[in-house]
Amino acid sequence: METKKKLMDSAFKLFAYKGNGFSLSEVASEVGIQKASIYAHFASKEELLYAVIDQEINQYFFEINEHYRDLKTLFSMTLNYYDKSQAKLYFWKRLLLFPPKAFTQTLIAKIHVLSEERFQMVKDIICAYMKEGIIRNQDPETVAISYMAMIHGILSSIIIYQAENVTIHFEDIWENFWKGIC
Fold first, then answer.
1. Is 94 among the domain residues?
2. pLDDT tens-digit profile of 97-135?
3. From CA 111, how far away is CA 124, in angstroms rounded?
4. Residue 157 belongs to what domain range?
5. Does residue 82 fall inside a structural domain?
């Protein structure tokens, strides 16, 4: 199982930085095995990549969904998830912008369903905040879209401006958003 994990870790990193253009030879070289040994664990590059993507989807959505309680917690959890690893950020950006065509009917569809669930969760929190008078009454869908756009914008900014230049502003960014909806 240790070799299988190393293969998946290598494929994760290679996909994050190279997209679908990585080769099994690169994976084998990085893990320190012969290319033929990969086939003891995965029948093909597609099967390896499917396992990697599926594992990351499950881990990401579980980790973030398990810890949400309010918008700020969800905001922090999401940004901290990516702050742990630049490869994770690249992996998700590449997966969402340039998904492997072989997985559009399966994994990409799963991401869309889970993303819709996440959006609804954010919208539900916003509606609850409005009912409690925590934020002013406004269109909850617009606020939810603004919230998600803010997070995606920050994540893109981390790639563009380098993490150390953006992460120090997370609290101020949150405060600006929060003041805008209150």
1. yes
2. 888 888 878 888 888 888 898 899 999 999 999 999 999
3. 20
4. 51-181
5. yes
Residue 126: inside a domain, yes or no?
A: yes
- Enter the pTM of the model: 0.84
**Do 83 and 163 touch, CB atoms closer than 8 A?**
yes
Query: One-letter amino acid identity for 10?
Result: S
The per-residue pLDDT for range 37-52, each reduced to its tens digit, is: 999 999 999 999 999 9
What's 95's domain CATH number? Answer: 1.10.357.10
Residue with tokens 């095995």: 33
